[in-house]
Amino acid sequence: MWDYSDKVKEHFFSPRNSGALEDANAVGDVGSLNCGDALRLMLKVDPETETIRDARFQTFGCGSAIASSSALTEIIKGMTLDAALKVSNQDIADYLDGLPPEKMHCSVMGREALQAAVANYRGEEWKDDHEEGALICKCFAIDAVLIEETVRANNLSSVEDVINYTKAGGGCSSCHEGIEEILSKVLAERGETFNPHAVVLQEEAAGKPAPGKMNNLQRIKRIEMILDGIRPQLQRDHGDIELVDVDGKTIYVNMIGACSGCQMEAQTLQGIQAKLIEDLGEFVKVVPSRAGSYARAASHV
Amino acid sequence: MERKETDMDGIYLDNNATTRVDDAVVAAMLPFFTAQFGNPSSMHSFGNKVGLAIKKARMQVQELLGAEHESEIIFTSCGTESDSTAILSALRASPERKEIITTSIEHPAVLALCTHLEKEGYKTHFLKVDEKGRLDLDEYRKLLTDKVAVVSVMWANNETGTLFPVEQMAEMAHAAGIPFHTDAVQAVGKVPIDLKNTKIDMLSLSGHKLHAPKGIGVLYLKRGVRFRPLLRGGHQERGRRAGTENTASIVALGLACEQAMQHMHFENTEVKRLRDKLEAGILAKVPRAFATGDVTNRLPNTSNIAFEFIEGEAILLLLNKFGIAASSGSACTSGSLEPSHVMRAMGIPYTAAHGTIRFSLSRYSTEAEVDRVIQVVPEIIAQLRKLSPYWGENGPAEEPEKAFAPVYA
Ligand SMILES: Cc1ncc(COP(=O)(O)O)c(C=O)c1O
Question: Quick check: B103 pLDDT over 80?
Fold first, then answer.
C-alpha cells in the first residue's frame, strides 16, 4: 500500500473542483489511456486581467493523480496566467505534503496540463518535451529516460558518474544493476564496452592516486594533508593532532591538549578515521599512539 | 463454514496474495518455538521428536500432492525459492542445453528469473496466450527440441485464476526428454492434484497461500529426476536443500495441507458458488465491465473483473475505505508504468487493463461479505467514472480517444 499523506487521501476522497466546466475558455488535455493517467484541465480565464476565475478537472488515474489534479485547481484559482505558469510540480507535491517517488509523475502531469491549457487559451501550440521511462532510482525518483539521456549527453561511463550527474543510485544502491544496464547499452552505441572497474583509472586521471598506487611517501603526505584539513576544527576546541607513524593500514596519532583523554576522544578518532577512509579510498585504522606502542610491542614478541 | 475471528474488521478478498493462518495451524506450530525447540539433526531426544514431527508434515504434504514417495518433498523457504531451485537445477544438470520454455503470464518468481537468464546467454521462449489467457499447444509442441533444458508452466495464474493443461504439457515434454516444472503456488489446496499419475517432474508450492505461514515452501522433486541443489551445506533435506529446517512452519504447513485436503470439496462447491455470485452480482449492476481470463476453466476462488475507463488503484483506495481488500493489475499499484503483464499478454485493451480488480475468496469468505461487496462496488465505479474524462453522462464518451484529445499521446 502506498504511503500517501493525509492530504493526498483527503483530496482523493473529496476532490475539489471535479467535473466538466461548461464555459471554459482554456482547456489542457495531457496523458492517455495507454499510460494509465490522463487529465483534462478546464479554466475560465478573465480576458481583461488574465486571471483564472474558475478551474475544474477530469482525471483518469490513480489516487495521487486525482489528488494532484484537485490540488492544482485549488492552487491556481485566482492567479494570473503568468503566475500560474510558475507553479512547479514540486509546488503541487508540497501542497499535498509530498508524494511517493513513484508518484511524482502525477504532479508533473498537473503542471503539463496547466501549460497546455494556457497555450490553448493563447492560441499557441504546446508540445510535450518530456518522455517518461521506467523508474530506476526509487530513492530520488529518476527514470530510465533521464539517465540514458544524461549518460549520452555527458559521455558518462560509470555508476559514480551517473550518481554525480543525476543523483540516481546515490541512495540505497538497489538500482545499480539497472544503471549498469543503461551504461552498457549507451556505451555500446558509441562502440565502447562498459567496464565496472573503470573507476580507478578515472581517479588517477583526476590527479588523485588510487589506493595501492601511491608510494609510501605520497601516502603519508596525503594523510598529513587530510589531518591538516581537520586540524582547525580541533584547535577550535583547544586541542590538536599529530601524526606519529603509519604502519600499513594502521595510522598512529597523538591527540594533544584538550582532545587527549577527553570523553570525546574515541568519537573524534572515529570521525577522523572515517574521513581518512573516504579520502584515501582504502580501509585504515586510526589508533592513539599510546595504545599503538602496546599493540606493536605485542605483535613483535 | 464458520466465520473465524479476525483482528481487523473488514472483508478480505485478497486470498491469492496471502491467507490467514488457520487457528489450529497456529496452535500446532507454537510448541516448536518453546518445548520442542530442538534441532532435528541432533542426536538426542530434543531433536528426535522434532524430526518425527517433520516426518509427519512431509507425509501430510505428500498426501495433498498425491506424491508417490515422501522423500519427493523438499521443504524450502518460499514459493520463489522453489521456482528458482527447480529451474536452475535443470539448467545445471544439462549445461549443454541453452533454451527454456515458459509462458508470458508467469509470476515474477519465474518470469524475472528467465529474463535474467537471457542475459546470461539462455534463450527463453515465452509462450503466448489468447484473449482468454489460453496457451496454444501447437506453438508449444514445435518448441520441444533437444536444445531445451527445462519447461516451466504455472498450474494456475495468480491474477485471473486461469488453469493450464500442465499434465498434458508434462506428457509432451516427457516424450521429448525435457524435464517439466510447474509453479503450482496458486493451485495447491484449491484444485485436486495427484502427482504420481502425472509426468510432472518438479512442482513449487508456498505455504502462505493455503493458510500456513509466510516463509515456508515446498519443492516436489519426482524420484529419479536429475537434481542440483541451490543451497549447498549441511545434509538437511537429504542434501538437496541445506540449512536448518524451519521446524515450526514445516509442522504448520503439514497441518494446513491436511486441512486443505479436507476442504477440497467445499472449496470447489461453496467457495465457487460465492465467487460466481459475486461476479454475476457485480457484472449485472456495472456497465462496461467484464471478467478476464478463461472463466470456464479457472480456480474456484478467483474473479478478475475489468472496469473500463477508470484506474485500478483508485478503485482499491475506495474499496479500502469501505473495509474491502482486493488487488489490482493496474500500473499504479506496482509503481511501474505498464499495467499487468498478464492483462497485456491477453490483449486486454488499455481502456480496461488499468482498471482490473482481482477478488480472491477463501473458505472463510461469507455470503454477507459477498452481498456487501456487490452493493458497494457499483457506487464506487460510478463515482470514479464521474471524474473520468473518458466517461460521459451515462456511458463512455463517444469514441473516447477522440473526445479526449491530448496534444500528444
Ligand atoms: C503463482 C505464484 N508463484 C510464486 C509466488 C511466490 O511465492 P512466495 O511469496 O512464497 O515466494 C506467488 C505468490 O505471490 C504466486 O502467486
Answer: yes
Q: Which of A96-105, A110-119, B219-228 has the highest mean pLDDT?
A: B219-228
Q: For residue A263, what is the domain's CATH number? A: 3.30.300.130
Residue B45 has pLDDT above 90, yes or no: no
Gap from B77 CA to chain A (nearest CA, Å)? 22
Residues A40 and A92 in one domain: yes
Cell of A80: 494570473
Q: A114 and A139 share a domain?
A: no
Put simply, whether A121 touches B (Cβ < 8 Å) is: no
Residues of A with CB below 8 A from B310's CB?
60
Ligand 1 atom with the smallest distance to the CA of B16 is 16
- Inter-chain residue contact B314 with A66, CB threshold 8 Å: yes
Looking at residue A211, its pLDDT comes to: 54
What's the total number of domains in chain A? 3
Test site for ligand 1: of B160, B204, B209, most ligand atoms within 8 A of the Cβ: B209
Q: Which pLDDT does position A301 carry in this prediction?
A: 37
Report the predicted TM-score, pTM, of the whole model to 2 decimal places: 0.80
**A80-86: average pLDDT:** 95
Cβ of residue B199 lying under 6 Å from some atom of ligand 1? no
To the nearest whole angstrom, how far is the Cα of A132 from the nearest Cα of chain B? Answer: 9
Interface of B with A in 313-342 (CB under 8 A): 313-314, 317-318, 320-321, 330-333, 335-337, 339
Is the Cβ pair A58, B408 closer than 8 Å?
Answer: no
Q: B401 touching A, CB under 8 A?
A: yes
Q: Which residues in chain B are contacts of A132 at CB distance < 8 A?
A: 337
**Over 90: is that where the pLDDT of A256 sits?**
no
Active-site residue identified among A62, A106, A139, A262: A106
Tell me which residues of B are annotated as active site: 332
Decide if A31 and B406 are in contact by the 8 Å CB cutoff: yes
Residues A114 and A221 in one domain: no
What is the ipTM score, two decimals?
0.82
Q: Which amino acid is located at B378 in the chain?
A: P
Check CB contact under 8 Å for B407 and A132: no
Instruction: Give the per-residue pLDDT at A293.
Output: 42
* Residue ranges making up the domain that contains A141: 135-189
Specify whether A13 is located in the same domain as A109. Answer: yes
B217 lines ligand 1 (CB under 6 A): yes
Least confident span in B190-194, B310-314, B363-367: B310-314
Task: Compute the average pLDDT of residues A126-155.
Answer: 81
* CATH number of the domain where residue A139 is located: 1.10.10.1100
Taking contacts as CB-CB distances below 8 angstroms, the residues of chain B near A70 are: none
**Model confidence pLDDT, tens digit, residues B114-126:** 999 999 999 999 9
Name every chain A residue with its beta carbon within 8 A of the beta carbon of B330. 36, 62
Does the beta carbon of B190 lie inside 6 Å of ligand 1? no
Of residues A138 and A212, more confidently modeled: A138
